[in-house]
Amino acid sequence: MQAVVTGGAGFIGSHLCDYLIAHGHEVVALDDMSTGSEDNLQQLVGNPSFELVKGSILDKELVNDLISGSDTVFHLAAAVGVHTIVDNPLSSLRTNLHGTENVVEAAAEHGARYMVASTSEVYGKNDSDGLTENADRILGSPLKSRWSYAAAKGLDELVAYVYGEETGLPCVITRFFNIVGPRQTGRYGMVVPRFVSQALAGEPITVYGDGRQRRCFGSVFDIIPAVVELLENPSGHTQAVNLGGMEEVSIKGLADRVIQLTGSSSEIRFIPYEDAYGAGYEDMQRRMPDTTLARQLIGYEPQRSLDDIIMSIIEHKRADAEPSPAAIR
Ligand code: UDP
């Protein structure tokens, strides 16, 4: 593969770059370094098969130029994290809408197969037991910027889908369900690295709302091989595929697990949503994937338990000493 990985310096993107390089592929990572970090790629510096290009997916010419020399595109660049979206609604929307359009257009023009990263957010407030890929979307008001990520990603999927169907190029849309692991920062909202940093610093664990909302966290190490395999073995037409973990936990339960696994003496502090995200914030109460389609297509079976995932983050943070959320926000 001659692959372009947009968002290659980010959390999932950098693990994907590692995996592709380890499997003998050539990789160009494109990243505007807004939420990505060079630290995530330090192990690849000097590797002749790898290059990091610092630039934006909004730079149409640059995107076109990079993709013209590739046969495979993994599009992961996006404005991510609830705090990013709520604090910067306009720039987030621009990146997530126009950036994806640029990437998919260039892939279509140059005949490169492509993957577009999407999210369980597209299901919105649908809290059914095991969301299948064709489950209904239940989004709040378009005038609430909180929904802009879900709305933009839904349109990204349509762009990916329509181009895929029209060009006949292999294309896959991956819907990630709360994917976590080492290198993910808590700076922009993600709960697991935040709780781990807080526990390691002995600070209060900030549980938003009543903590009874549930999530199903998936390991980055389980989903990366699946992403590559889905694109290498396309099913013949474009489809969206759920990828995530199997073990559901409440956010209060997650806080308890993190305290136990770090051996921390942190207390749990409940914070009203409006203090965390601003007035009128609507959270999803439950988000549980049905991964039957991924299992049917590629035999997807997540291997890591929630405790394995939390432990891998604890070990990474202990080695890395990332500051706690209180120190960064
Ligand atoms: N959350 C929390 N404390 C934090 C950060 C997040 O209780 O410091 C909650 C958040 O309100 C949500 C869940 O943890 O219910 C997962 O949040 P995250 O931003 O990781 O992902 P989301 O599922 O919201 O996209």
UniProtKB/TrEMBL annotation:
<keyword id="KW-0210">Decarboxylase</keyword>
<feature type="domain" description="NAD-dependent epimerase/dehydratase">
    <location>
        <begin position="4"/>
        <end position="244"/>
    </location>
</feature>
<dbReference type="InterPro" id="IPR036291">
    <property type="entry name" value="NAD(P)-bd_dom_sf"/>
</dbReference>
<dbReference type="InterPro" id="IPR001509">
    <property type="entry name" value="Epimerase_deHydtase"/>
</dbReference>
<dbReference type="InterPro" id="IPR044516">
    <property type="entry name" value="UXS-like"/>
</dbReference>
<dbReference type="Pfam" id="PF01370">
    <property type="entry name" value="Epimerase"/>
</dbReference>
<protein>
    <submittedName>
        <fullName>NAD-dependent epimerase/dehydratase family protein</fullName>
    </submittedName>
</protein>
<keyword id="KW-0456">Lyase</keyword>
<keyword id="KW-0520">NAD</keyword>
